């Protein structure tokens, strides 16, 4: 080691030595912070059967909520630490611990973990459900609360909801008359999807089959987000460009389908005048965008 340092001092420039010293200090600092974090995590109750690389992933079965409940009963009635791959995960089970997380320190836990799949599907996690807590999230939430989910706007969609209820009841009557079984989970899922579709598409006819396309796209989104994603458990590995392209290939294809649908809907809505009662979500967002651009232009002029 002494010979290496002497060689560097003799042949390296002062700038290179300074850069090397800075990098060394940063590495030591990061190692110190990591060791402190590990010491704190190691104080938490955790199942002993941790395996190399995958951690406790083998303990989570097909029903994760049941597996977590059983593990919490044995290893942590309040909090429990699981190593899911390379990600330390805190499982909170008691009401007191949940209160600490959801109320006392809610700002710390307000943001979702970064998701490579969500980043693709929601245009850089700009969706209000996936955006990190901060100014952008507050502005997006304000737009949704003021323009999309007002009492008057919710009431304006009542005829659409009633229409969808009548369709569901008609399907149930037909099934009863034919003495066939009905999958209520599917029926209610389709109902909620069609109500959302009506709110988004508004005056566009149901006969175009867009409600079925929306239903298919939403189901695919759910599968991609809730399935096994490498970056959820091995974030550093998923950052590699080659691995990311392979892991996110399905998400990229899904995003292209969304782009085609949304571009077509926006083009059909743009430039068409509608009353406030007839306006759907796309109409409202287009008007908000025009208003924002006008204010921004006025601000530039001022």
Automatic annotation (TrEMBL):
Nucleotide-binding found in the keyword field: no
Organism: Panicum hallii var. hallii
PANTHER family assigned: CYTOCHROME P450 FAMILY 71 PROTEIN, OS01G0543600 PROTEIN
Protein name: Cytochrome P450
Keywords associated with the record: Iron, Membrane, Metal-binding, Transmembrane, Transmembrane helix
Family: Belongs to the cytochrome P450 family.
Organism domain of life: Eukaryota
Pfam families: p450
GO molecular function: heme binding; iron ion binding; monooxygenase activity; oxidoreductase activity, acting on paired donors, with incorporation or reduction of molecular oxygen
Keyword Chloroplast listed: no
Annotated TM spans: 12-31
């Amino acid at each position: 080691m002494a010979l290496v340092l002497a060689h560097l001092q003799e042949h390296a420039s002062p700038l290179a030595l300074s850069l090397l010293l800075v990098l060394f200090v940063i590495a030591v600092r990061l190692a110190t912070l990591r060791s402190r974090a590990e010491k704190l995590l190691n104080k938490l109750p955790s199942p002993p059967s941790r395996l190399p690389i995958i951690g406790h992933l083998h303990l989570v079965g097909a029903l994760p909520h049941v597996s977590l409940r059983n593990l919490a009963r044995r290893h942590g009635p309040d909090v429990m630490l699981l190593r899911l791959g390379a990600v330390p995960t805190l499982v909170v089970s008691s009401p007191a611990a949940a209160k600490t997380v959801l109320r006392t320190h809610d700002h710390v836990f307000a943001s979702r973990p970064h998701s490579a799949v969500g980043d693709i599907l929601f245009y850089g996690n700009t969706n209000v459900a996936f955006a990190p807590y901060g100014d952008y999230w507050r502005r997006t939430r304000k737009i949704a609360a003021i323009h999309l989910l007002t009492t008057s706007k919710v009431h304006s969609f009542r005829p659409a909801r009633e229409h969808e209820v009548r369709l569901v009841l008609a399907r149930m009557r037909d099934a009863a008359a034919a003495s066939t079984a009905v999958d209520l989970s599917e029926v209610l899922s389709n109902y909620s999807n069609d109500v959302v579709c009506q709110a988004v598409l508004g005056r566009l006819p149901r006969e175009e089959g867009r409600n079925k396309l929306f239903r298919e796209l939403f189901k695919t989104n759910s599968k991609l987000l809730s399935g096994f994603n490498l970056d959820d458990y091995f974030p550093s590995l998923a950052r590699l460009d080659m691995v990311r392209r392979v892991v996110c290939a399905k998400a990229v294809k899904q995003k292209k389908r969304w782009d085609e649908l949304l571009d077509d809907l926006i083009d059909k809505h743009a430039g068409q005048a509608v009353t406030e009662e007839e306006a759907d979500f796309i109409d409202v967002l287009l008007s908000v965008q025009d208003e924002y651009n006008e204010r921004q232009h006025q601000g530039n002029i001022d």
